[in-house]
Specification:
Rossmann fold; 6 helices; single chain; five-stranded parallel beta sheet; 19% strand; alpha/beta
């Protein structure tokens, strides 16, 4: 049996005999960790649940548009102190800032808008988004500076960033230091990928 998570659209393969006919069934998506319920009337047969339709693709009017060359950041952050601090310091640095606390909306946006900077507050939903980002091709992933805000390590801890597969890690208690944390994250990303781009250019010349 195949179902699509209505939140992140992950295809779920499930055993049909695990679902009793005529009863509500609650499932938890292993990718985004968000739960959803299948009502009895959604069952077309005792052992055959219909595939859930994924969230519709966003219409042009649902997505923000930015001028060519604009720097754009997206925040999937719920803490109001972090939202305020990040929005302020990013706008000071010339970024356009979009904010959402809805997982399905965030999922659509990161796949549809070419953000330069993604900041996630560590939640099960955010980890689901990170899992999706980890499936991106190398060139797409390298084009985005991804920052995670969590509680298990100090800010700017390189092993925490490596462990979560992000470019930089901020401790949740450091919202008052957002200004210099963001600048450190941007500078570190620019320096790392400047070296990477130079190495790639050198390698391409060697093989010409």
């Amino acid at each position: 049996m195949h179902l699509n998570c209505p939140h992140c659209r992950k295809l779920l393969k499930l055993a049909a005999d695990k679902f009793p006919a005529g009863q509500r069934v609650k499932l938890v998506c292993p990718q985004c960790a968000k739960s959803f319920v299948i009502e009895p009337e959604q069952q077309t047969a005792p052992n055959n649940l219909p595939s859930l339709e994924p969230d519709p693709l966003p219409q042009a009017s649902d997505l923000e548009f930015y001028p060519p060359g604009a720097k754009v950041a997206f925040l999937f952050v719920r803490d109001p102190d972090w939202v305020a601090s990040l929005t302020h310091c990013l706008k000071e640095r010339g970024y356009h800032v979009a904010v959402s606390d809805n997982h399905a909306d965030a999922f659509r946006r990161i796949d549809s808008v070419g953000y330069h900077l993604l900041l996630f507050e560590q939640t099960p939903e955010a980890l689901g988004l990170l899992g999706h980002i980890h499936t991106w091709a190398g060139i797409q992933r390298r084009s985005v500076n991804v920052i995670l805000i969590g509680e298990d390590s100090a800010s700017l801890h390189p092993q925490a960033a490596f462990r979560h597969g992000v470019n930089c890690y901020f401790n949740h208690a450091d919202s008052q230091n957002a200004q210099w944390l963001v600048q450190s994250a941007i500078d570190g990303y620019d320096e790392f990928y400047k070296v990477w781009r130079l190495a790639a250019q050198t390698l391409s010349k060697v093989h010409v």
